[in-house]
Amino acid sequence: DAGVTQSPTHLIKTRGQQVTLRCSPKSGHDTVSWYQQALGQGPQFIFQYYEEEERQRGNFPDRFSGHQFPNYSSELNVNALLLGDSALYLCASIGTGDYEQYFGPGTRLTVT
Amino acid sequence: GIQVEQSPPDLILQEGANSTLRCNFSDSVNNLQWFHQNPWGQLINLFYIPSGTKQNGRLSATTVATERYSLLYISSSQTTDSGVYFCAVDPGYSTLTFGKGTMLLVSP
Fold this sequence. Notes:
The complex is a heterodimer of chains A (112) and B (108). Chain A has strands at 5-7, 10-13, 19-24, 31-37, 44-50, 53-57, 64-68, 74-78, 87-94, 102-103, 107-111. Helices cover 0% and strands 51% of the residues of chain A. Chain A contains no helices and 11 strands. By secondary structure, chain A is an all-beta fold. Chain B has 108 residues and is mainly beta. The mean pLDDT of chain B is 95. Chain B is built from no helices and 11 strands. The N and C termini of chain B lie far apart (41 Å). Chain B has strands spanning 4-7, 10-14, 19-25, 31-37, 43-48, 52-56, 59-64, 69-74, 83-90, 97-98, 102-107. In chain B, strands 2, 4, 5, 9, 10 and 11 form a 6-stranded mixed sheet that branches.
């Protein structure tokens, strides 16, 4: 049973650039959420995708956008990168009717 | 939004000791999960426990939903238990709000 996968593992970008992170949900799951974890903090909810639409959104600017594909995989895009966007980005998935969320290994983004 | 507070923020133990981590939350929840974050950042599911008590080996958890708190017990701690423990709650939108975590260090 494949768990949640994310790519890439690490990424270094320059301020002002754009980045795309990818996530494949756990087998049988159809809902994907993205979280940002700054150093020393707990993860913070960015947004959630279900049926290829954004269903919930946390307190993040429009520079953060996403997409969900028909196979339930998802992308997180961040435009005009700021130094403060440096963080671990975590993807989580859940199945319809379930309550327990499962997380991927994360993508560590460094903005210089 | 819902608030989640974890205590203590840091904990240092000798191998073999027992510990209790606490999570308080400010509103009723549909879901409460405990996670262990390893040094590489992976969040490992420990318990899904919106109410009641569960046990898994040396770990157990209890959630008293009516009083809005949860406890994670670690018995006979091992060095591999070191890391950050997070409590996260879902008020009903299938999204999780995390506490700031408890950093546990178990020394040999």
